[in-house]
Design goal:
The chain is α+β, with helices and mostly antiparallel strands and 223 residues long. The chain has a single domain, classed as Lambda Exonuclease, Chain A (Alpha-Beta Complex). Helices cover 36% and strands 27% of the residues. Strands 1, 2, 3, 4, 5, 6 and 7 form a seven-stranded mixed beta sheet that branches. It has a two-stranded antiparallel ribbon with strand order 8-9. Helix 4 (118-134) packs across helix 5. The longest helix has 20 residues, at 158-177. Bound molecules: iron/sulfur cluster. Iron/sulfur cluster binds at residues 20, 22-23, 26, 183-184, 188-189, 192, 194-195, 198, 200.
Length: 223
């Protein structure tokens, strides 16, 4: 399936969707966002990585920062922190560059590697977008964790690609329906920047956007 550009969703949202569908809906459908220490630090890291004016070149090695990408297959668009290009005869041609180059994404994260797959699905979605942009197949990518100074290699497997296609399909379905998934309180809720807006212990029912806005306005007006 190919999505129309007007229907594209933010690529970075796939990590929220994998973590908690309600969190994704609150951010990407209801436009709710709350800062906590984790999100502020994460933004600082991305500001450093997403500097479009930095271009680095070393022998047999190029770095491109803040590259914009999108995917018709996934219906997603976003910006890549860092794409490394290593000179290799098995790679692809790049405009204005001699030789062949193998592209690899490095996605910067605060904290340390997580037990769930939210960072991994984001990296795989980014890689699939980059593949569409460059017309090539990419076998691996890296997640760099700032607080433990660790670079983790991720194999872009067929299984992970299927998972990302399915997550993107579900994101578009939920976006079209404008439904807010019910809250399911779990231990990570304590770390969620939207916990005060979500109220996961109280809001266990699914509701529509219109109903949510009505409720929010009523609570703001003290009704
Ligand atoms: S508080 Fe919990 S249920 Fe609510 S959005 Fe955050 S992670 Fe999801």
């Amino acid at each position: 399936m190919a999505y129309a550009e007007d229907d594209y969703l933010m690529l970075s949202g796939i990590q929220h969707f994998q973590f908690c569908k309600r969190q994704w809906a609150l951010i990407h459908i209801y436009q709710e966002w709350a800062e906590n220490e984790a999100t502020t630090h994460g933004q600082f890291l991305h500001q450093k990585a997403d500097n479009p004016y930095i271009k680095e070149k070393r022998k047999d090695f190029l770095i491109s920062r803040a590259m914009q990408v999108s995917s018709k297959e996934l219906g997603l668009y976003g910006i890549l922190d860092v794409v490394e290009f290593h000179k290799d005869e098995a790679g692809i041609s790049l405009s204005g560059k001699r030789g062949k180059w193998i592209p690899t994404i490095v996605e910067y994260k605060r904290g340390k590697p997580k037990k769930d797959e939210r960072d991994i699905v984001q990296l795989v979605a980014q890689t699939m977008c980059l593949e569409e942009a460059l017309g090539c197949k990419i076998d691996k990518g890296y997640l760099y964790y700032h607080s433990v100074n660790k670079k983790v290699e991720i194999s872009i497997s067929a299984e992970l690609r299927h998972m990302v296609v399915e997550l993107a399909r579900q994101m578009h379905e939920l976006y079209q329906k404008r439904d807010l998934p019910k809250a399911e309180y779990f231990k990570n809720c304590q770390l969620c920047s939207l916990v005060d807006i979500c109220m996961p212990r109280l809001s266990k029912k699914t509701c529509s956007v219109a109903h949510y806005i009505q409720q929010s306005m009523a609570s703001e007006e003290g009704l």
